[in-house]
Amino acid sequence: MESTNSNASLPKKSKWPKRIFIGILTIIILLFAYVFICGITYSSGTRTGIVIKVSQKGYVFKTYEGELNLGGFSQGEGTIMVKNIWNFSIQRNDTAIYNSITRSEGKQMRLHYKEVIHHFFWQSETPYFIDKAEPVN
To answer: What is the total count of domains within the chain?
Structure first.
């Protein structure tokens, strides 16, 4: 009398396809979460000062970057005023904002900005994105 084992003839199911699928799904979810976090605005506001520099930078990914001199504090007559430079980037490489800032370079400007939690390296050098610029009369 021979005993037949029905389980011995069936091939074992591999767990690798399931593990690979779960791994890929986890990576996709983490990437979407990271992209979502990069778009969250941490703060927004305005800064007023004299625009001293606006340029397009980057080897492959060109971004508009600038510097705003916010002024400084003096202790009285004859003392040196300390510079307070604020670096910014222009949101989505908006050429209209870039042209507006360039025309008013060296004059008082009010720049409205949004600060993001994190930014990708191809978006800008700073977390401050200018989305509106207006000259101060």
So the answer is: 1
- The pLDDT tens digits for 37-70 are 777 778 889 999 999 889 888 888 888 999 998 8
Whichever domain contains 118, its CATH number is 2.40.50.860
Domain with 124 in it: 41-75+82-135
Question: Residue 80: its pLDDT value, please?
Answer: 61
Could you tell me if residue 71 is inside a domain? yes
> CA-CA distance, 133 to 88, in Å (whole number)?
12
Residue pointed to by tokens 């992209």: 35
Residue 38, classed as helix, strand or coil, is helix
Pair 62, 125: CB distance under 8 Å:
no
Amino acid 130 reads: I
- β-partners of residue 69 are 50, 85
Cβ-count burial 79-96 (b if 16+ within 10 Å, e if not)? eeeeeeeeebbbbebbee
Q: How far apart are CA 74 and CA 4, in angstroms?
A: 97
> Is residue 9 included in any domain, yes or no?
no
DSSP 121: T
Residue 14, pLDDT > 80, answer: no
